[in-house]
Specification:
alpha+beta, 7-stranded mixed β-sheet, 5 helices, about 30% strand
Amino acid sequence: MKIRPLTAENSDKVSALLSQAFPNSRYEDRLVHNLRKNGRKTYEWVCIHKNMFIAYIAFSTAYNGDTPCGFHLAPVAVNPQYQNQGVGSELIRFALRQKELRDTTIYVLGDPAYYQRFGFAPVDQPVCPFARKKDHFMAKGEKVTEEFTIGYEPEFLNS
């Protein structure tokens, strides 16, 4: 199993992987496609096993108003054949160690029981406009006390 940065020529393989991992949703595929198409700053890695893309992770800019304040982890996807085998965990740990991300705040909206094992913790601030359950919005890194609603790239709303 190898983890590599995503290259433009492999974006179709990621699209297929996202369709497999999220069979009832086109949102994730449209989101990453639109982020790339619109030139948004993203960090993307793929996990390859036997020449097959089995996992994918992306990070996009988080905002406090117009000012970048970290990155959002979204989406993370694992081919259903490889789920519950530690592939997603290994990919997340790998990505969080990369120089582009390791010294900044990372936000995620997801299952606390899963993401807390990577050092994420629920936060009071900032507030996530998409969080139905407050404890599902978490951060890893600098603690924020300033009150604000975290911003996302517009593609999160338009995908």
